[in-house]
Amino acid sequence: xxxxxxxxxxxxxxxxxxxxxxxxxxxxxxxxxxxxxxxxxxxxxxxxxxxxxxxxxxxxxxxxxxxxxxxxxxxxxxxxxxxxxxxxxxxxxxxxxxxxxxxxxxxxxxxxxxxxxxxxxxxxxxxxxxxxxxxxxxxxxxxxxxxxxxxxxxxxxxxxxxxxxxxxxxxxxxxxxxxxxxxxxxxxxxxxxxxxxxxxxxxxxxxxxxxxxxxxxxxxxxxxxxxxxxxxxxxxxxxxxxxxxxxxxxxxxxxxxxxxxxxxxxxxxxxxxxxxxxxxxxxxxxxxxxxxxxxxxxxxxxxxxxxxxxxxxxxxxxxxxxxxxxxxxxxxxxxxxxxxxxxxxxxxxxxxxxxxxxxxxxxxxxxxxxxxxxxxxxxxxxxxxxxxxxxxxxxxxxxxxxxxxx
Length: 406
Description:
The chain is of the alpha/beta class. The protein contains 13 helices and 14 strands.
């Protein structure tokens, strides 16, 4: 019996060894597979047009950069359009590495859930894939040339996924959260709008210097690649689009987007411009750059038979990072006390922006602050009473407190 077990173990060992060293059935041939980094969807002439941005690894000992290419397919559904990409190219579209979904402007005429549902329900796409809306065509955004990276989708993700300690001025959203918002009680979702901005000459010159330096270290590039900076673009992602039941209903500007992040996300180390402040009545106005060191938001809802009260509090702890050159002083690089007029103006600005968020929520019927979920969770007794008109009947109180080093 003991000898039989030993024979079985040895047989399994040799069988696995043979498969491991002589068989590649379980491996993916990277040259025969389309590793898609991003997918753009447009709606043209009654058909969905999918543009797949495919990473082409070309890393060597002397060159660590990746290349990319775009392939377009069309179909009556999003799935058919993506399948057509594989039919045309001969590469089977692998979406496991797809980190970005771009919706073209033309898809906004539809219920966007018709586009997004494919990516949320198929197991081939990760839930954390980001979703954005292009100002024009999704295909043009993916094909854009940018000095930030050879692959435009990777450059865009640098704007969307900032490391802790950087400005939180983009309302980043992913496929899972976007769809859960659509199917929730509020039916509300949001996504950042991406605009392309032409890189200025200074940015281009800096990029050319960097490119030339990289060429000397890692092998020369073609002259066409080095000099093709006139058409390079950067990305503006400060505007946030609002969706109700899959339809576009409004947007948040740059300041409102920052305030939305202050109420819903980690907002530390975000900077805010505070202009036209008089530190003293005898002085002229000055401009400041204020950094939020701590942010503590709270959204509270009280309900009874006769009223529905929404209370929003926002406590900010700040420091001055910079001010206009005319009044510049090296002491402001230290932890000096915050002038009271700067604290007052910062408080005034955030109070204004929070009130604008509430007004936008009411006007668009897009509950991006999830007030209805709070009503259902904490005041379920009155949910049936207010669920259809809670935005129009609620009384809102906004309290913003800004402090700094004393």
